[in-house]
Amino acid sequence: LVVIDTAADTFGGNEIARPQVRQFLSRLTRLAQQIDGVVIVLAHPSQSGMSSGSGGGGSTAWSNSARSRLYLEIPEPESGRTVERNARILTRKKSNYASIGDEITLKYVDGCFEAEGENSNNDMVSRIEKVSREVTCEEIFLSALDRLTS
């Protein structure tokens, strides 16, 4: 896992020039392939990206060249209700391999974010375990199918 914090501190090009952004991100893709891992680039949205809720900024290549994009924001107060000052919402804005628009409600506690409500750590762990069991079952099935067909 490589985390780049932030794109503004590491990208020396013009953030609205699509070819420059694509070249930067394609080099990060090569890095991810070389380490057989993941590269995460943190970036701040533009003013229009914040006001629209899209979380975008600069060239469309920032989103289009990435496999997924998440957006962390402070929730807006609803009809007179106050918002917990340490509350955040993490939203999946783009994904090539998962649904879009899923949200996790977070709360900043003692230096880190914790999932709240139905997205609590226990629920997240149980979902990961379920996916792991499904993958294991599929691998066993495919292995048995290979043996039968050979």
Q: Can you walk through the features of this model?
A:
The protein has helices at residues 7-10, 18-35, 47-52, 61-64, 121-149, and strands at 2-5, 39-42, 68-73, 87-95, 103-109, 112-115. The protein has 150 residues and is an alpha+beta fold. The strands form 2 sheets. A 4-stranded antiparallel β-sheet has the order 3-4-5-6, with no helix packed on it. A two-stranded parallel sheet has the order 1-2. Strand 5 and strand 6 (112-115) form a beta hairpin. The protein is globular, with a radius of gyration of 19 Å.
Q: How would the blueprint of this fold be written?
A:
Blueprint: E1 2-5, H1 7-10, H2 18-35, E2 39-42, H3 47-52, H4 61-64, E3 68-73, E4 87-95, E5 103-109, E6 112-115, H5 121-149
Parallel strand pairs: 1-2
Antiparallel strand pairs: 3-4, 4-5, 5-6
